[in-house]
Amino acid sequence: MSHGRRPEESERIYTRRFWLAFAANVMLVTANALTFRFAEFVRFLGGSEETTGVIVSVGLVGSLFFRAFLGQALDQLGIRKIWIVCSLINITGSALVLTAPDVGIQIYAARIIFVIGLSGMFASSVSHIQHLAPLSRRTEVIGTFGASGFVGMICGTNLGDLIFHLYPESRQLYHVLFGISLLASVLHMCLAIWLTRSERHETPSFTPPIHKLMMRYWPHRVFLVTFMMGMGFAVTMTFLTRYSTELGLSGIRTFFTAYAVTAFTVRLVARQWSRTVGRHRLICMGLLGHAIGHLLMTFVTTDWQFIPPAMCLGFGHALLFPCVVSMGAGAFPEQYRGTGTTVTLAAIDSGTILTAPVLGWIIDHFGFFAMFYFVSGSLLVGAVSYLALTSKLVDSDIDIKTKSESQETPRAAKVLEPVQVTSKEPARVRP
Fold this sequence. Notes:
Elements: H1 16-34, H2 38-44, H3 49-77, H4 79-98, H5 105-130, H6 138-166, H7 171-195, H8 210-217, H9 222-247, H10 253-269, H11 279-296, H12 307-330, H13 337-366, H14 368-390, H15 400-406, H16 410-421
């Protein structure tokens, strides 16, 4: 897969093309953030929390099946074609959600189609952005680009709360909500078409089956982290709106505004930490932030009390996503980077698939507090486990020159040999 020459280390990466891709992702995440009210819609149609969890899981299962082909389609056909097709699929799913009459076959089908399109749009945009930076700055550019998601999160959640404030609980409310989401997806597609207008795609001469690529390149320990991330997203993007309603609060805009502002700030401040601190440590810090954030949810009684847990969760998200995508997708060779990206994003979704129905069941039978305790404890165990698994590993993203100059210790000298081994496979992590 190629867009032309990859930028050199000394070249600017924050060009007009980058900022247009940034704006396109703002549109995409705004569209998705408006659907954070999906659980309210299911409730309006007569469904329960467990029903919502099942619908969300079914949608993600459909996207996982699609991603088994999506990665290789990106490698074989190029980003432009897949990006446009997936945008059209997502728009179709939005239209079906908009017109769903009840908790029946249409809403399940609509959710599957919507998420399939969304997964392809995200994978295409992340694959596109990775090529705008040299290999040594891949984690940085993914992190900076990801800050656009937090801008979209602020726009989408505040707009959603405004719509809920302006309209009474009715079919018209959801027509407006999902109609604006559909419009934002259309704007995203227009920007994607413009961004890829000059794409020059080189098809690999041979593409092995996805399971062989996964066995050869996928860093399996990363799955623990993606599973934990998926569980956290099941809480914030599916059940948080129901928790707010249960408490009698005004909505979720306070939480997601604090979440996004914190994550945006941390993303900018920490954009080069992967080269000094290392991605393994950043992942442990991110999981710990998530564990604390979900625990603090149990103390919320007013809107402003959403701010402390939101800051913890935003901090965790800011560190986790670029590290995980960089380690997962970057472990694959350049010509199979589309497969690597989709496998990594699918691994995150698998965490949501497996946990959303369970979390919905816990809420229905034991309440929201039990769900938050369960999630917080699981994330803490995940952080400790990942720390144990990676305590003796050296991250290939660490800038060796900076490391050796700042820490003249025997350990710094030992880093040289393993990292040099990664020159053939620059994103692989070696002991």
